[in-house]
Structure formats: C-alpha cells, structure tokens
Known about the structure:
By secondary structure, this protein is mostly beta strands. The protein has four helices and 24 strands.
Amino acid sequence: MTFRRSIPLLVLAIGFARCTNDMPDTDPGLRAGPWHMELDLHGHDLPFQFELVKADDATWDAHIHNGAENIWVTVVEVRGDTFQLRMPLFDSEFVGTVQNDSTITGDWVNHLRGPDYRIPFLARAGNHPRFRSNEPEGPDLSGTWEAHFSTGTADAYHATGILEQDGTGRATGTFLTETGDYRYLEGVVYRDSLKLSCFDGSHAFLFHASIEQDSLHGRFWSGTHWTEPWVAFRNPDHRLRHPDSLTFLQEGYDMVDFTFPDLDGRLVSPSDAPYQGKPLVVQVMGSWCPNCVDESRLLNEVYARHHEQGLELISIAFEQHADTIRAIDGLKRYRDALGLRHTILYGGMSGKGRASAQLPFLNHLMSFPTSIFVDRKGKVRRIHTGFYGPGTGRYYDAYKSDLYAFVQQLLNEPAGTLVADR
C-alpha cells in the first residue's frame, strides 16, 4: 500500500536471533506479563498492548497485539536501566529507560523515516484496556462503511471501512483503499465516539471519530508526520474499483521486460531460460511495506504448492535505504525471516516515480505491492494493484481463493496455446 504519509499480518510470528552473549547480570526486575504502551502523537495518545515474557535469566520476548494479530519480538534487551525492543522485519525500535519494575519511558525510532524520526512513549505494566474510558458502550457500528479521506484536497481518496463490535464496546476492523488496507485496527466505541489504533513496527495509525446517527466524522494520524480528516457513512453496497483494473501495460507492450540484479549480484531477466514456457508472477514490492509482507506470505504459500508444476515467482524490491549494501542486507533478512524461496531482485530506491521509470512497460505504478501475472507464452494476463491482507477477512479469503484458481488455470494451459484473457 502506498501513502505519501506512510507506505502503508494472518498471525505474524517471526523469530530473530537473540543478542545474549554480552548481557550483564544486572536486571531491574521488570514485571512479566501484560503491558500497555502509548505513543505521543503531538498530544494524542496512540495505545496498544503487549506482553513481556522472560525467555531465560538474561533475555525477554515480547508479543504485540492488534486485534487478531500477534507480533512476536525476540530482540528485547534490558541492560541496567536501558531498554531496547527491536521490531522484526521493519527497521524500527523502542529505546528507553526503565524507571521502575512497571514503568518504561523513551522513544520509538523509525530508522526508515530518518535518524530524527522519534515518537515518545510511555509503557506501564498491567492489564490495562487499549483505550481508557468510563463511558457506556456506544451504538453498534458493525458493518460496511463508505469512507472519504481529505475530501476537497489533492490528497483525497475513498475507502471501504469494515467494523465489528463484540457487545462490550471493543471494536476491530480496517479500511480498504485502492492501494491496500490499513491492516489490523483495534479500539473502542463509547457513548458517541470511536477510537481505533494499530502499531506493527511500520504503521503507527490512530483514528478518532464522533458518531452522528449513521455517520462518522473524525481524524486520522499516521505517526507524527501525517494527519487528515475523514468521514464515513453506512453503505453495505460500497465498492472500490477492482484491483485488476487500475494498472495496465503501456501501448505497444504485451510482455514484461526488465533486468535487475538478484541479492548476490547476478543479473536476472524474465527472458532467461529458467522462465521460458512457464507461468510467472512478478511482484513489485518493498521490504518496508506491511501490505507487501502480507502478500509475500500468500505468494510464498502459492509458490511452495505449485513450483514443482512449473510456477515461477520473481519479486522486484524497491527499498528505502539509499545505501545499496544496507538495502540488500535488509532484503536478505526479509527473505530469511519470511522463509522465501523464490528469486528476489533489487530494483533500486523506493518511490512510485522511480519504480515506474524502471518499469516502463507499465502505464504507472500506483501501489506497492503490484503483481503481474504472465502466462506460458510470456503474455501479461492480469495486473493486480495493491493487496487486501488477512486483516480484511472475507476480502482476503475471496482473493486467496481466486488467486489459487487463476494460477491453476495458467498452469493447465499448454505452452503453445494462447487462450482469451480472463
């Protein structure tokens, strides 16, 4: 998913190697169990919950919760009164000071947005609600909503909101846009207000809204770098444009054509012998993009099931680190953490304009990720913009089913036969 403010997981359970060899014996006695974290977005608190689990005498694990999502973090260090929690996959971390056994203060540092991108945090031990409120539960907001962000500006876009409420005031859901989804949101409905939040190491999303009959009027924050107004109306029939209709081949092209280095520096092209006569999926992505993580997991599953039948998969990564060595190292960690077995190529620096220039056969690159489906004759049969991940529920399930069926169709086609576009 691509945002000018934030480029915008299934359960995420990713293990990184623990750093334990130089851990000192001093332990401030942090409480194990549930904790509550608040990020300070210029006076607006973005809350989420996590657990600290003592892995052994010197190390900790953490589990961050967003709705049905559980992010497993194994790089957690406590050295004297210094606390560090390194997020998996995305280049961000919490660096703080242990004030006592139940309080930690410090900053969340998102290195992908630059060395000075810091958001203060306060973490407190205990089983605190995500959003504190003594107000009674508000009206049931469960259902589908037609949402509009930044109406009347150059940044305007629309979305489909899906919300669920459990009868206690707890709300979960997400927003689907034409470039992806806002992943796992969790919050509360009380009296005349809705509050939702998400933190996954890349996203720091906060939504506030007032409830006015069957409409919502609110504000959205993405970290401290972006904020915008939004409104939503109940509309069970609201639909966005189909993801297969948003990106297409430039006039005069019917095939993909590119050459990029893989993670070991070897140049790779779809015209190379290993890809001839086989269905091919080309994923345009970035390791910094949570929607790309979600799609990579699904494509990895499809590839594992169908590679022996001839399916090939190439990912072209456009990264946010200007230093090529650092970018390649990050992609190798991404590959290993997700257990990816297909070819990953380095396309250069991220940005839709840069990526579009590197892929001139496309009319534009609207979103990370974008996936291109090529048949056995090398003809592009489908271009899918964005990705609706597991946080979207039935939308994800429908695409997953359709994806498997379409890949099987491509595999069933003889190499010498061109069938009509799907």
